[in-house]
Amino acid sequence: MLRSTIHRSISNELYIHKYGNGVKLVRPYEIAPSSMTLHQSHTIGHASTLNCESEIVRMNAAGAELNGFASENDVVGKSLFDLFEKNNAKELRDHDIEILNTKKTCISVNKTTRKDGQDFNNLIIDAPCYGDDDKLIGILGFSVVIGSQPVEPALNYFRELGLLETVRRITISDIKLTKREKECLDQLMYGKSYKQIAETLLLSARTVEHTIERVKIKFGVKTKFQLIDFMQAYY
Known about the structure:
The chain is built from 10 helices and 10 strands. The protein has helices spanning 2-9, 61-66, 72-75, 80-83, 86-102, 152-161, 179-189, 194-201, 205-219, 224-231; strands at residues 15-19, 22-26, 36-37, 46-51, 56-59, 106-113, 119-130, 136-145, 169-172, 175-178. A hairpin with a 5-residue loop joins strand 6 and strand 7. The protein is globular and about 50 Å long.
């Protein structure tokens, strides 16, 4: 019953639209024309919709190709355990369960390992997805392969939808960061000093210093330069 419900809710005729802390798939005449269908979403990376059991209901062509499938239809009905190495699939499933339980959009940076052993470092944005009856029916996910695809289009699209405003924690290499910690880290990786970060984020320099100190502790490094060196792979 769940699977049939989500299949009715997702098609090229339904558009992605913000709903609470997640998304809802609605008909074109119900929303502004600036929204986008899942079919069109190849322009911002790999997109997929999973039901509450983490089974794939739809995936765009870019996502199907990345995961080793000849077409979008070939991947429908597959589970995470059909696509990824067992331990990696379990981690992704646990992540999906957290999204479904908290009902909040999440950004994470992690490595996925396909069953053939090929690895990808991805920026992943997952949002709870709701159906016509306003019930949670699964997850809408976008991913970008870091280093080979631009991340800005995906982030800009989610920012325009208003979903980034709902993000409270970001995960990098299984380390959870608060929104402020991630903002300060981003600015640090842009080459800014603590004083410049403080001016940009409208914080005190001491607050920035304490925030970066917490980030250093979380990643197990002792100096700012060690942190910058460690984070190069993710930026």
